[in-house]
Amino acid sequence: MAGSGMKSLAKDTAIYGLSSILGRVLNWFLMPLHISIFTNTIEYGKVSRIYGLTALFLVLLTYGLETGFFRFMNKKEENADKVYSTSLITIGCTSLLFILFSICFITPISEWLRYTDHREHIMIMAIVVALDAFMTIPFAYLRQQKRPKRFAALKLAFIFFNIFFNLFFLVFCPWIKEAYPDFILNKFYHQDIGIGYIFLANLISTLAVLILLIPTTMKGLKIDFDKSLLGRLLKYSFPLLMLGLAGVISQTVAQLVYPYIFDSVEEADRQLGIYSACVKFSVIISMFIQAFRYAYEPFFFGKNKDGKDNTKSYADAMKYFIIFVLLIFLVVMFYIDIIQYIMHRIGRNYAIGLDVLPYAMMGEIFFGIYFNLSVWYKLTDKTKYGAYFSILGCVIQVVMNIVLVPIYGYIASAWATFACNLIIAAISYFIGQKYFPIKYDLKNIFLYFVLATVFYIAAMYPQIDNELLRMGYRTLFLIAFAAIVIKKDLPLSEIPIINRYFKRNK
């Protein structure tokens, strides 16, 4: 792993990654809890639809300002305190306006979203998404200040709060109600609220983290709003809104269009419940991408500030990123028997959708590559290209879902995600080479993709009835892939955490 810059990036990614992995794994266990309690796939489809909408509105409410914050914090001619203050005040005001707008127009909003049965669910999540949007700037400030441990601790705090309140409302309270009917808590608990408690748990957890984040928010804040600076920030950041939308639509297009392409909302929610539950197993790749993003944005903006040619570092980052996501892909697919066992145990109605997984994971991989490639237009201030690519991606996703899902079912949503991200990544690469040439190691990148594909086919194609023999056979290919990577590009002595053991032996 060449260079101290790569080691620093790897270290920060490891810290963000460990917290993200732990947090996502813990949070992932809520999915089995939810589908074991709400066995009707329609109910889980409703939860998935609401969370898909909140992801969309979170991007709209941050309007690319998180990346703009990093860009301007690392500009020599800008005042860092003023950048932080202006960004925080701006997002704070728009978040407050969003809450007020949601309160005033909750009825037409719920009718437009075809979610009229429980308008309170939409109102709760509107408050959650507004608070999340506000907190993006304090969290970005922690990343800018190179405080990944504090960042990770707060993110994990939310996960623990959310799990606790989910267990409290969905497990403990029903048990108390049944075991001790006269207990005072039963006066406040109403079982017919059902999935509403999932959203309520999220709101309480978000408020708790907001309180914990206040010291960080106030520490670097000097009230100094600069209207001129805001104009420059928005000019840079607003096209990135479309980039963010591409990522969200990549993950939530099904939640957005299914209610309109099936004969009934109930059937849409049933299909969506199956698809969403199975796609969640691709979370391992998406959380690695998230951890990498947390570390990589401060990394490349900081590198650019020193005025040197850092394109070699960006090329290395891409290669190592691809190595790790392909390794994750093989691990998940080679041990899919374990996933199938889990799905059959906790939700037999959902297990039929696991065929979407390889396409969903490849879609995530190419979205991660697309994010890596975005360095060229973020550093050259040509963020309008991010908007162009994202609009194209949105069109591809929506059209493929509308045309193919009624014919092939929910698996077409995974095909659409894969195709969309592959196309926009390819276009971004070719245009980026014109404006900001980066000599990516295409030879080895292509080699790793070919190896992963060949090993995947060779490992998955043979029909081996014995489960242990089948997984043992696949493990041989996993070891072979890892061995090739270690020999060519990733000596163990260069990997954070693992390298400690090599140093001791010297």
UniProtKB/TrEMBL annotation:
Pfam families named in the record: MatE, Polysacc_synt_3
Annotated Gene Ontology cellular component terms: plasma membrane
InterPro entries, per database record: MATE_fam (IPR002528), Poly_Biosynth_Transport (IPR050833)
Superkingdom of origin organism: Bacteria
Transmembrane region(s): 21-38, 50-72, 84-109, 121-142, 154-177, 197-215, 236-261, 273-296, 317-336, 356-373, 385-408, 414-432, 444-462
Keyword entries, A-Z: Cell membrane, Membrane, Transmembrane, Transmembrane helix
Subcellular localization: Cell membrane
Record's bilayer topology term: Multi-pass membrane protein
Gene Ontology molecular-function annotations: antiporter activity; xenobiotic transmembrane transporter activity
Protein name in UniProt: Uncharacterized protein
Organism of derivation: Dysgonomonas gadei ATCC BAA-286
